[in-house]
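Key idea: predict the complex, not the pieces.
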Amino acid sequence: MIESVHFRNFKVLRDATLPLGQFTLIVGPNGSGKSTALQGLRALSQPDAWQFKDVASVDLIAKNVANVDLIAGEEAEVEIQCKIDSYVLKVHWERNSNGRIDDEEEGTMVDGFRKRLREKLRDVSVYSLDARAMCSPVQILPQVKLQPDGSNLAGVLDQLQSEEPERFEALNLAFGRFIPEFDRILLEASVPGSKTLLLRTREGKHKIPARDISQGTLLALGMLTIAYLPNPPSVVCFEEPDRGIHPRLLRDVQDALYRLSHPESDGEMREPVQVVATTHSPYLLDLYRDHPEEIVIAHKIGQETRFERLSEQPDLDDILRDSHLGEVWYTGILGGVPIQP
Amino acid sequence: MKVAIFSESPENEAAIRILVDALLGQPTEVAHLHLSKLVTRGWPGVRGSLSDVLTKLHNRREADALVVVVDTDDSPVHQVEHEQPGSLDLECRLCYLRDVIRRTQAHLKPRAGMGPIKTAVGVAVTAIEAWYLCGIDPHATEAAWIQGLRSKRPPYSRDDLKKAVYGSARPSRLIEAQRATEAANRLAQDLSSLESNFPIGFGALADAVRSW
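Result:
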């Protein structure tokens, strides 16, 4: 498990340490570095694939560069502290250079650990699901993977149906509990060699093409699909998994996330996945009242960001005794809210 | 008899109904709750919404009775002395909920042809999962919890109880509902063990329901 990630000069994260657990939910105001932290994790998966002309303001997906003046010689750094033997792995991006991994051993190096760590980092997936991308027909190829925006959903579901029919049936049931309007995920061959996603209504048994399905329903299906994969990535990050989903359904969002990070919570047998998610929803936050160690507050102080585990706030028990966590956070008492000008 | 069940989670309400039916010796009909807030329940949700729930059930004439069950968590456990005049302890959740019900009903207009809604409050010491473990784990009792509080060494945590009942401290909605219902069906066969191991919190519920 990745225990923490330290960022230096990485966009808004000038000098910040993000503590992580098996499951971590980050809350904070816009621009506080929540998404940047996920970008950093994604960059770690393939550091040599990224080159930054300006390391203080990088766009890891489009490789666009913003004009931010840097002090000569300054470099960006993302450092990961891993659990085993306090092993530290650092990745640097110097101006106009690809990322570079520096290994630093603290404690006894376990044979093969470095390789396993690199493999784990290569297996980081950051999802920011987009309903439009998710409803596109998919050409059927072996070992199709869900893309960060949810593209290939029909292909992944088709693969699950043919290779893991029991899981596919379980996913159908879970989806039916989540969105009771529908009772079946259907995959039809629109043109030879490709599959199109449809959902069948519980009443009337009408087949609705994915393009006509609501955004929230598709996002819910995408998230559940990841939770029901037999071999999900070892680190899964979600940008606002509650987006488009009614507050009353957020318990199902929590269940899907916990199914990944704590498989036993839903009777699942596979290895746990480390999950990092972000949210602005006080209602989603409410659901973590019993596990404040899983919440990280992003405090934006001027141009700096500081991450703090909610459980480290000393008077938390007194504050939450009779109150909803989400409401308390919304008041600003816990921090992690926009600052009034 | 139409009975509404209001607890910290909808997953537990089917299980509580099984226990209420066993106490009454007959099945009850479901009276739906009319919740004004979309927030998660837990203790803050029950505490904040109970008055609204009771008012709406009363005005819509849809329920004969309301059962409320909450966890005590780390709050003070109810004592007989609290029931003496002037000794109400609002830190005690049983006292608090009874007081909310009393104050709410005092302001409700009488329902023509119907009496006031019958009510029953139960408090699970320290969490409802302790009830579900009754007959399985001899250490999960009110006495063990109270002794633990006195010695400042609680015998178990809420996570411990959840793991014992659900196999996880973070059970999914489905597993929570399934295991709760299984446990309630088992307990309904013999309520005496629940009443003897949880005389304060379950005892209060049982006495109130049987008095209807």
